[in-house]
Amino acid sequence: NPWLIFFDDDNEPHLRYITQASKLINNHPEVGCWGPAQISVEYIGGQMNDWLQKMKPVFQERFIAEEKTDNNQHWQIWYPVGTGLIIRKDLAGQYAQNVLQKKYFLSDRKGKSLSSGGDVQMVLCAIKEGYKAGISPALKMNHLIKKEKTSLGYILRLTYGTASAYIPAYNQVFDEHRFEIQKAGSRKILIRIYSYFRIHYVKQKDKRDFWIGLTQVMGEFKASTDDKKFNTPLILRLYERVISYK
To answer: Which of the residues 104, 162, 165, 213 has an alpha carbon 20 to 30 A from that of 236?
Structure first.
């Protein structure tokens, strides 16, 4: 069966990436998509500092020493990410067809939106079709991060997009086993923001960490309201505008 491999222009795969992928595909016919277990992040064109070193997992850095496969429909933290994703062509085609038919309507990275919904849905689609998802340390990738992607604003948008993607991505794929969604209005969100400020603002020495944590919370609110039957609350729309200008 033909397979597809997705490389972005900032992906630097190991020289034997395709060879190792071929071996995994031949040895594990039950796996419908693969990804690298070894992803190193390298900042280019900018100054390195301790804070950016801490941010590397945001850019998908991982060093997992063992091969893992599973077909659990609930997302596992080690499941393949978009960087270097390998997937059966028929499964990618099924995903694309569902997008065209508007069964999957979650937007992926577009403009300043940094949602990772498309990557997540391709993996979940493979699982729904009866395959496993897998990673292997034989698949190694260097993820090159340009200076403009190291700004706080970019990292906030990336955090927000990732946090807001999973629930709607899952619900669109596994419509028969949906997470129950309850609309959170602006009042509830404002109370949560106030509570988060009271508990965390003084404790966080580096206020960038505070804003990343708050953005994670806001993204989770977005995830719980990102459904056709709900409109995005005003406070979330305002927050999205704020981080788009950072």
So the answer is: 104
Question: E strands within the chain?
Answer: 3-5, 11-13, 31-44, 62-63, 68-70, 86-88, 132-146
Question: Which residues in the chain come in under a pLDDT of 70?
Answer: 1, 106-116, 226-230, 245-246
Phi, psi of 20 (to 5 degrees): -65, -40
pTM for the full predicted model: 0.87
d(CA 27, CA 217) in angstroms, rounded, equals: 41
Cα–Cα distance between 166 and 76 in angstroms, integer?
11
Distance of alpha carbon 80 from alpha carbon 187, whole angstroms: 37
pLDDT digit string, tens, across residues 64-75: 999 999 999 999
Cα 3 to Cα 34: distance, rounded to the nearest angstrom: 10
Between the alpha carbon of residue 235 and those of residues 31, 63, 218, 227, 244, the distances in Å are: 42, 37, 10, 17, 14
**What does the DSSP 8-state code read for residue 107?**
-
**pLDDT per residue as tens digits for the range 103-132:** 887 665 554 445 567 889 999 999 999 999
